[in-house]
Amino acid sequence: MTDSDDAGEPGYDAAFVRRWLIRTADVVELEAGHLTELDSPIGDADHGSNLQRGFRAVRAALDQGPPDTPGGVLVLAGRQLISTVGGASGPLYGTLLRRAGKALGDAERVGTGELQDALRAGVAAVAQLGGAAVGDKTMLDALVPAVEALGDSPAAAREAAERGALGTVPLQARKGRASYLGERSIGHQDPGAASSALLIAALAETAA
């Protein structure tokens, strides 16, 4: 997190967003096997490896010289994910970050409210792309409550994301590969919601 602005609100600059995404890449490396285990019974058993490949590409791009605005960093990361990750997760995560980055524009530093609004725009784009809503057993079940809680604090966003991800266990999948299983998808945590909770956790850890 950067220094506070004149109103006392914490600000987020390009360096912060870069640290957030690098932290996400670190966590994905650690949790890739678990994400794939979650994906095995209801998906293609590749969610962890796909995200691992994508965030390795994000890290490499950021190491080469990240943009100097928070929005620019997010757009770059989103493009990397779309171009390197197979399956549905690449377009979905890429759309989330790229749309949020575009919403931030060229500002060199943004406040919590601006970051929240940008992520809300990114989540809306994900919902439109996937045709999903909260309760469909997707990443939205973690992202939507997390973004709403971000107005309170990044820590609150993390807690909301983790609750949302765990809350997918009793749900029947209505979108994505898992929806083909019908009632057999009940009892399994959605891997996209789990990885989304990791993304938000990395945000909270970076802010702390």
Structural overview:
The protein is mainly alpha-helical. It has one domain (11-207): DhaL domain (Serine Threonine Protein Phosphatase 5, Tetratricopeptide repeat). The chain is 64% helix and 3% strand. It has helices spanning 14-39, 47-63, 70-84, 89-104, 112-130, 140-149, 154-166, 191-207; strands at residues 11-13, 109-111. The chain has a two-stranded antiparallel ribbon. Residues 1-8 have low confidence and may be disordered.
CATH class: Mainly Alpha
Indicate the low-confidence ranges by residue numbers: 1-8
Structural class designation: mainly alpha
- Averaged pLDDT: 92
Find the CATH superfamily.
DhaL domain
Q: Order of strands across the biggest sheet?
A: 1-2
Q: Mind describing the biggest β-sheet?
A: 2 strands, antiparallel
Number of helices: 8
CATH-derived architecture? Alpha Horseshoe
Distance N terminus to C terminus? 8 Å
Listing every helix as H and every strand as E from the N terminus to the C terminus, the arrangement reads: EHHHHEHHHH
Shape: globular
Q: Indicate the proportion of strand residues.
A: under 5%
How many runs of DSSP E, i.e. beta strands? Answer: 2
> What name is given to the CATH topology?
Serine Threonine Protein Phosphatase 5, Tetratricopeptide repeat
**Multimeric state of these chains?**
single chain
Radius of gyration: 16 Å
User: How many separate domains?
Assistant: 1
What helical percentage do the residues reach?
55-70%
